[in-house]
Amino acid sequence: MIVTVLLGLLVWQIVGRDGPSPGESAPEVVVLPPTLPPPTHTPEPTRTPTPRPPPPTPWVPTPVVHTVESGEVLQYIATLYEITVDELMVANEMTSTIIHSGDQLVIPGLFENPPTPTPESGTPRTGYFTYKVQPGDSVISIAYRFGASPEEIFDANSLTSSSLLYKDDVLQVPVPLFSDDVEASSDLAPRVTNAIYAAPKLLHPGNAALVARQDPVNFRWLPVDILAPNEWYVLRIWTNQGDDPPTIWTKATSHWMETDMAPVEGGSREYFWHVTVVRVVAPTIPGAPRELESASLTSEERRFTWQ
């Protein structure tokens, strides 16, 4: 009974004391959602920067030293280490071929602690660097120095063989077949410009050498100094037949070219080679291509015949 009365009062309060007029429907009851608590702010997690690996420890070469024994002559020692007498004399600043028992001779290109080859990461590819033109430069000389193709430099910069270059022009230089380590090395050293080493001194193979086709070719040269993390020896090997081996970027002072590049049996092929030092520099504008600098004079050009 009490429940019925309470329900009647509730209906009376909703529709009004007098009830709805004839033909008028009862007003709609709107049920409001419950009050929501204010949103709470979830702070974004603090991003921890990825630690950058420390620069590699510079390689300090320790040359091999030969102690002369009684009866030895320079020709014997040079043959023993597969170098020439001239190279042995230059490395030891000798003006005479006379040697004595107990003399100590530095053997050029050989070290007690050869450098650890830089591991390559990623797939070799073509990368685009920028290069600021210096007095006397031409597209041919730039390609020659960095192991690039003149035709690709022409195409990348919309140039023709008759185009003129001016000091401080900035060119795109497509560099073929380099590893990710070469590109990343620009972040491992401060930006240094205008530091020029002497030209690398080539050791082996000798100029106009003959190499048996079943033997790999060992290229060797003297170090110019302790290279910074972003400095690389660039070994360029080429032929006049258009199918050149890839350009080599390395921290070492030697490189083996295996026999898969040798001519077919009964044939012969003439190769040319030189070495230079190149510096990879971080761009001044974030996101721009990295820059290339010549860090040494280019070595002499040598040739050999594989047959």
TrEMBL record:
Gene3D superfamilies: LysM domain (3.10.350.10). Residues 34-59 have a biased composition (Pro residues). InterPro entries: LysM, LysM_dom_sf. It comes from the Bacteria. Residues 64-107, 129-173 form the LysM domain. PANTHER family: LYSM DOMAIN-CONTAINING GPI-ANCHORED PROTEIN 2, MEMBRANE-BOUND LYTIC MUREIN TRANSGLYCOSYLASE D. This is LysM peptidoglycan-binding domain-containing protein. It comes from Caldilineaceae bacterium SB0662_bin_9.
